[in-house]
Amino acid sequence: MNGNGSQLSPQEFRTCVMVMLDEGKYNQCNDSAQNQKLLSILSLSPKKLEKQENLDFVCRFLAHYSADISSKFDVDEFITYEVKELLISTIHLGELLEKCIATAEFLHEVSPDVLKRYGGGEFSGRVGKVGFECVFMGVAKNLDSILELDNPNDFMMGKIERFWSGDLANEVLGSGMNGNARISRTVPYGRNYFKPDS
Fold first, then answer.
1. 3-state secondary structure 139-192
2. pLDDT > 90: what percent of the chain?
3. How many angstroms separate the CA atoms of 7 and 108, rounded?
């Protein structure tokens, strides 16, 4: 890993920490990061895969699913802290990773481009943090309730279309706010927005 003397990316550093804490749990996380449906909706370039950004998204999922970000952390510190807590705790990591993969598989069924911006009847652009924090995390928190609906895919497409044309998406995307401030808005918003009764 990164043997050419260049600076470690945040995830490469996090990987070192994870391996030292519990290599078995690290392997569980890394295996989940190779899921083909997850890789498809993340749409990462080979360079980003080399930087372990697929594993970075899994770590972000674990952190955001487990806790709300604190103002005392920057984003990467928060993710590393929460992942470390999960690796040293008795919490069944496998259940969280299963939720991550189940969310990816459902969203892929809705559309492989589901995390990209939506407008004019089509998805476009690249997968950004806002799509992951609002859409992926919001659906993950409400997955069981969404799947109980008569037409979960239709529900999702309606929600996604309204989300990308709504005030929060445009405000966050154009604001230049820092990561902590953004996440403090996007993750809770998605959690509430994707409730079937909202």
1. HHHHHHHHHCCCCHHHHHHHHHHHHHCCHHHHHHHCCCCCHHHHHHHHHHHHHH
2. 69
3. 34
Tokens matching residue 46: 């080979």
Q: Do the beta carbons of residue 134 and residue 120 sit within 8 Å?
A: no
Q: Which segments of 67-92 does DSSP mark as H helices, in order?
A: 75-88
The whole-angstrom separation of Cα 131 and Cα 117 is 7
Judged against a pLDDT cut of 80, whether residue 17 lies above it is answered with yes
CA 104 to chain centre: 9
Contact 101, 37 (CB under 8 A): yes
* 33, two tokens: 């990061």
In angstroms, the Cα distances linking 144 to 49, 109, 120, 123 are 30, 15, 30, 25
| pLDDT per residue as tens digits for the range 108-119 | 999 999 999 888
Mean pLDDT for 94-119 is 95
Report the alpha-carbon angle 37-141-123, nearest 5.
45
- The pLDDT of residue 169 is 72
The pTM (predicted TM-score) of the whole model is 0.90
In the block, residue with structure tokens 């895919």: 153
Q: How far is CA 34 from CA 55, 75, 90, 123, 181, in A?
A: 8, 23, 24, 24, 30
pLDDT at 82: 94
pLDDT band with cut points at 50, 70 and 90 for residue 3: low
